[in-house]
Amino acid sequence: MSEVTRPTLSDALTERMLELIRTGGHRPGDRLPSTRELSQRFAVTTPTLREALRRLEATGAIELRHGSGIYVGADIERLVLPNPNMREIRAARLLELLEARLVIEPPLAALAAERAGDEELAAFRQVLDEAGRHLRGEDAELHDANMAFHRATARTAGNGVLHEVVDSLLTVHGPEQREILQIFDDRRRDYDEHLAILAAIEARDAAAAEARMRSHLADVKAVVERRLQSPQGDASPR
């Protein structure tokens, strides 16, 4: 019975925490009452409260700072959030995510070419310089830099909602993207394609930026499709 009622209590407590933030006029970075104060306010045990706090932290609504307290998170006002409870993504689902990226990201690259300022261009170059230092086996660092490049492209496009969509998609299938890096197994080619996209953005060539981003993502999708054609194609890509 407890296994049924416990999530319901956590759901209700999570909503009450969000209502506290909203009605209290709290902004990102504002400090919230302590765990003890919240437990007393909501008449729940500390473990139950901590479960709700962990769920809120997973979505970026709050930030738990060890030794300091509970703060309103930077993502409290986001319209689109990655699902922290997302289960293992199967191969077919991964293809759908890549198809979504093919629809969304190429036009954003075109907008980035039109709207990028000197500061944004410098940030692009810094991200790719970082990627270039990790082409020989440091795949965790390379993955982070690659994803930072795609996030920066979406952010530079200037549409906050679409930036959140891209950020959420990349977050949801982060493990699968790391697997793709292994399957693709041509880090230099991947890096060179990113450089080509940046060159188009720097040249303010929106059409080229869009075409190069589409070609790049199509390459990634082709790798996954080949994986799906293997005898284990109906299983998870991990």
List keywords for this structure.
238 residues, mainly alpha, Arc Repressor Mutant, subunit A, Four Helix Bundle (Hemerythrin (Met), subunit A), 10 helices, disordered C terminus, Tscrpt_reg_HTH_GntR
At CATH's second level, what is the architecture of the largest domain?
Up-down Bundle
- Mean pLDDT, all residues: 81
Instruction: Label the structural class.
Output: mainly alpha
**Quick one: overall form?**
elongated
**Number of DSSP-assigned strands:** 2
CATH class of the largest domain: Mainly Alpha
Main-sheet strand order equals: 1-2
How would you classify the quaternary structure? single chain
CATH topology of the largest domain: Four Helix Bundle (Hemerythrin (Met), subunit A)
- Percent of residues in helices comes to 55-70%
Poorly predicted residue ranges: 1-7, 85-89, 233-238
Query: What is the CA-CA span between the terminal residues?
Result: 35 Å
Number of helices: 10
* CATH superfamily heading of the largest domain: GntR ligand-binding domain-like
* Beta fraction: under 5%
Number of domains: 2
Describe the main β-sheet briefly.
2 strands, antiparallel
Organism: Nonomuraea coxensis DSM 45129
Keywords: DNA-binding, Transcription, Transcription regulation
Pfam families: FCD (PF07729), GntR (PF00392)
Protein name: HTH-type transcriptional regulator LutR
